[in-house]
Structure formats: C-alpha cells, structure tokens
C-alpha cells in the first residue's frame, strides 16, 4: 500500500501528475477540496460544522478537516493506497494526519515535492486560467498571493517530512511524462 503526499505550489502540476499516478497505481485520490464539496453537498455533520466556520469567515479547524479525511479512509478500506493532493497544508495538519493514520495502522510512505521556479508557476497558472474558469488563476495579484501563502505557510510541511526522511524533491519543469517517470521511480523505491 502506498500513501503519498503529492506536494508543490499552485501550478506545479500536482493535478496532472495525480491523475497519472491514480491510473498507474490504483490509488484513491484524497483532495480536501473534493471532501469539502462532498460533505457540504450531502449536509453531513462534518459538512455542517465546516459550513458554520466558513459562514463566519473563519478557517475550518484541522480536526474537522482530519475528520473528513478519516471518513474517506473508512469509506475505502479496500484502497490500494491514497494520494494526498493539496493536503496537509500546515505542519499541524501533517502531525494530525500522521496520528490519525497510525490509528488505522497506516503511514505516509513519502512526500513527493514538485520543484518549480516561481516565474514558471506564474506562466502556468495564467495559461491554466484560460480554461479553468478559476478567478484566482487569472488575476496577477491573486496568483502572487497564492504563491506567497504557499511559501510562507505550506512549504514548512516539507521540512516536517524531511525530518522523517520521507521527502523527495522532483524537478517539476519539463515534459509531463518525464516528470511522471521521475515520480514513479521514487514510488517504486518504497
């Protein structure tokens, strides 16, 4: 069983590579955005709790997010593994994720971080914005803010996994299939 954190800034190619990894390894995609939409849409207890915080303009607490992740893991007991896409976003979330996984006798095998220079990210996000219909993919100020938030708040998560010898950086610039081959070489070494 593989449990992989696919990590990188906005525009690094996580979505593209996640799709390819899911197909190759039969992993279950675990995206907090998808989980939020599911729980909010179904009106679950976790969804209602998340909505309460969101309606107040507050961040949804880590324990609610972890609860949604755990719910997904419980739903898919026969999974061959999970690919965590865009999560964890903070060191506290990474610690909570490790603790929750240990209760299920699971662990993160590794974090694969896509390394892409900021100027390339900006070009990719703007290009993606032509088809994504995401407002935050089309506005330079929002793009810069997203990259800054990643650098200031999310990048320290890589140090957390590095301290466990679970971080592997991959050059995220180049041909999609070459990047994919570099990633699968890492995963196959687990």
Automatic annotation (TrEMBL):
Main localization, broad class: cytoplasm
Pathway: Purine metabolism; AMP biosynthesis via salvage pathway; AMP from ADP: step 1/1
Location of this chain's protein in the cell: Cytoplasm
Reactions listed under catalytic activity: AMP + ATP = 2 ADP
GO BP annotations, alphabetical order: AMP salvage
Residues that, per the record, bind AMP: 32, 37, 58-60, 86-89, 93, 134, 146
GO molecular function, one term: ATP binding
This protein's domain notes: Consists of three domains, a large central CORE domain and two small peripheral domains, NMPbind and LID, which undergo movements during catalysis. The LID domain closes over the site of phosphoryl transfer upon ATP binding. Assembling and dissambling the active center during each catalytic cycle provides an effective means to prevent ATP hydrolysis.
Subunit text: Monomer.
Name of the protein in its database record: Adenylate kinase
Species this chain originates from: Algoriphagus aquimarinus
Lineage: Bacteria, Pseudomonadati, Bacteroidota, Cytophagia, Cytophagales
Gene of this entry: adk
């Amino acid at each position: 069983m593989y449990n992989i954190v696919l990590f990188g800034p906005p525009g690094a190619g996580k979505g593209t590579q996640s799709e390819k990894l899911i197909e190759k390894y039969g992993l279950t995609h675990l995206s907090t955005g998808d989980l939020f939409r599911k729980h909010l849409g179904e009106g679950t207890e976790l969804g209602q709790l998340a909505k309460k915080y969101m309606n107040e303009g507050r961040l949804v607490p880590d324990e609610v997010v972890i609860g949604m992740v755990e719910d997904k893991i419980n739903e898919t007991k026969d999974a061959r593994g999970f690919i965590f896409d865009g999560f964890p976003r903070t060191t506290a979330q990474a610690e909570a994720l490790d603790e929750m996984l240990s209760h299920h006798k699971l662990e993160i095998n590794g974090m694969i971080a896509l390394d892409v220079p900021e100027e390339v990210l900006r070009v990719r996000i703007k290009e993606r914005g032509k088809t994504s219909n995401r407002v935050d993919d089309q506005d330079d100020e929002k793009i810069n803010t997203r990259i800054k938030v990643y650098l200031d708040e999310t990048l320290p998560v890589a140090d957390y996994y590095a301290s466990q010898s679970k971080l592997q950086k991959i050059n995220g610039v180049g041909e999609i299939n070459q990047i994919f081959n570099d990633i699968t070489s890492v995963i196959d070494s687990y």
